[in-house]
Specification:
Keywords: Membrane, Transmembrane, Transmembrane helix. This protein is an alpha+beta fold and 243 residues long. Helices cover 17% and strands 47% of the residues. It contains three helices and 14 strands. The strands form three sheets. Strands 1, 2, 3, 11, 12, 13 and 14 form a seven-stranded antiparallel beta sheet that branches.
Length: 243
């Protein structure tokens, strides 16, 4: 019975550790009078592999320019924690030049962390210039919005530190999300541009007893319990044999 209890404690947990992912740029737009532009996710990393990724630069004519992209998505099996991070350097958005003037950010970073306590994310913008839209915080509050207009027409919304709680319990952080609000016949057009995105969570369970070091500990405890029980049984039988 004691041996059965020890084995029951060694059964692996049924839930797998949480997942995470990150990418630098994703574009899907249809601009006025131009062909559709689709790209990405660029330099995508996943906890299932590759856990890190990078890209030297990206240039989508008339839409976006970017320098180095670095991403990572990692899982700590010992604690179940998941971290994801995307960093994109020297970002330009010529897409918005007609409405805002020159738009550029030296570094756009999104991070997401999932632990047993919960999931949280953040955005960091270094050297951000959004033209006529004015100054923005380096660490904008979740879902900060900037309305973009051409004359009296609202043509786009820029969402900074967009945080989306997904049905599976994970969190997606898009550092910059440009949403074009029209269609292919209205100023600018329609579609989405996302710069630096990280998704993680919920956290997985810590490493189960029946894997890695936990397996050897479990077997050691089982042996320590089983050996004395076996000795006791032998000792109880010997007098009966002698008699």
């Amino acid at each position: 019975m004691v041996a059965s209890v020890a084995l029951a404690g060694a059964v692996p947990a049924s839930a797998a550790p949480g997942d995470g992912s990150a990418y630098g740029v994703k574009v899907d737009v249809k601009l006025l009078g131009l062909d559709a532009v689709k790209a990405g996710p660029l330099a995508e990393a996943k906890t299932s592999g590759p856990t890190t990724n990078s890209l030297a630069k990206a240039n989508l004519t008339g839409v976006l320019t970017a320098g180095a992209i670095n991403t990572e998505a990692k899982r700590d099996d010992n604690s179940g924690a998941v971290t994801a991070k995307a960093s994109t350097a020297d970002v330009g958005l010529p897409l918005l030049k007609g409405a805002l003037g020159d738009v550029g950010i030296k570094v756009v970073e999104a991070t997401c962390t999932a632990t047993q306590k919960g999931v949280q994310g953040a955005t960091n913008l270094v050297g951000a210039n959004f033209g006529s839209a004015g100054a923005v915080d380096a660490t904008p509050a979740p879902n900060t919005q900037i309305k973009v207009g051409l004359g009296t027409v609202n043509v786009a919304t820029i969402i900074l530190n967009e945080q989306i709680k997904n049905p599976d319990g994970s969190l997606t952080v898009n550092a910059i999300h440009v949403k074009l609000l029209g269609d292919a016949l209205t100023p600018l057009g329609s579609g989405d541009v996302i710069v630096s995105s990280a998704t993680c969570g919920p956290a997985g369970l810590p490493v189960p007893l029946a894997s890695g070091a936990g397996l050897w500990i479990g077997l050691g405890l089982l042996g320590a319990v089983a050996i004395p029980v076996g000795i006791r049984v032998v000792r109880n039988r010997r007098p009966a044999t002698t008699a």
